[in-house]
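Researcher: Go.
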Amino acid sequence: MASLSSAALLVVDIQNDFVHPAGKVGEATGDMSPLLSAVDSINRLIATARQVKVPIVYIQVTHSPELDAPSYRARYTRRGMTPEDLLCADDSWGAEFYDGLTPPEPGDLALTKHGYGAFTSGELGDYLRDNSLDTVIVTGVVTELCVLATVSGGFEAGFHVLVPRETTASVDIDAANAALSLIDKFYGTIANVDELLVDLQKSSSKRLET
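Model: Structure:
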């Protein structure tokens, strides 16, 4: 059963190309308000996590023809994409963390992935097990891709999963809602961020005793 006294906070892909109005998604869609609202909620969660000593893991994705797996490159070909079309291209401004996100601090773990799920490399799972953490609070974007893949990967790796609804978003609201329904049905628990913030405060004394 999920335990906030042995939880880590995962912040997935809050990068310029995904959430900044001048990023590639913003240029293509125009309305970034759902994603920016999610960032605000994530920042609130980060602040409380720091206060109660919940470990925080910042995760970003980068892409390039050299880094991407053959399955990704084949998808680009099917969609007629060029290297210039890649979201979060390696070493680009688009791949950098969005400056409206509370940035990592010394002691936080920062991981880079080259696909959807954060558990694919094994490094995240090893870090959690090495620190006796059995629960992940998953936040970030976009709900129906990298968040869903991270949630399912965490579940398959044996971790309990919580997803605060207000801390994840997509420009495709219907797809995001469908992904949240899948998460709630098959992989974990959909939480309310305000209630979670209170519960984290309550769990802090137990965490500090262990």
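Model: The chain has eight helices and seven strands.
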